[in-house]
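Researcher: Last one for today. Full complex below.
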Amino acid sequence: MKGFVPDEIPVGGFQIAPMIDVVFVIMLFFMVMAGAVRVENELNTTLPGSTESSAATDFVDEITITISENGEVALNDEPFDTPTSTDLKHLRDTLMRLKQNADNAKTVSVVTVISEPQAKYHRTVAVLDALASARIENVSFSVGED
Amino acid sequence: MAGGGGNMESGEPDFQIAPMIDVLLVMLIFFMTITSAQVLRVDKNIRLPVAQNAVRKDSSRSEIIMNVRWEPLQGRAVFTFQDRTYFSMADVMPELRMAKEAAQTQISASQNPHVRVVIRADRECPALYVSQAMSAAAEVGIADIAFSTVNRD
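Model: Here's the assembly. Have a good evening.
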């Protein structure tokens, strides 16, 4: 920007070069802010309910995921990943395979997440996140008895 | 802003400052807009859990926001609902019922079919208290629940 020097600088006139400098600085600020900002997203679920129906219902693949107080996650009573694992990679891959199998068999995957009362909430969200990555939508969440 | 013409007398095109300023201002407005649109409505006392695969917030529907804050020193959860603090979910119920009725009035006005409850709970909070918030939603007849998360730590 310093290379831009007008032939005649009127005294007290409008200076374009400093204005562009300032605009650049402001733009850089907002560019950096846009990259660093944390966005609030959401994971959706629907509470289980009862409906009266006389029509036949399709079979569903029912999966139960339990979360223990120490953070251990088990799928159909089989433990997955370590209690401190944040990305739950093993569980995620297994859920993707189960979803693929359910899609191939044209059945619906229904997952119930049951957490122990004192288990940390972030553990529940990690499981819900793994379910979201596997594109399993029929998810319900409940807390087990003490 | 634009309107500068080129000086082609020497055969070389001049550096045009006006279009450059136009582009700069457009970029500035773009970054200002996206930054302000993503302002985080997070209570500083609540550390939301991180989820990479969560979906964008659906702002087109009527929603009731319920905050669940965890106080580790006291070992208790505090429910914040409509700027009021409650220590028991049972105390929130009358306010929640009124909020649902108010939200349903908005629905009939805007033809929006569902009210949902958005639970903003601290990541360290025991699942029991999140479950209590869900039970309260169920008790007032709302089955649609969303858990708030953030995209990065």
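The first strand of chain B starts at residue 55 and ends at 56. The beta strands of chain B are 55-56, 62-71, 76-81, 84-86, 115-121, 144-150.
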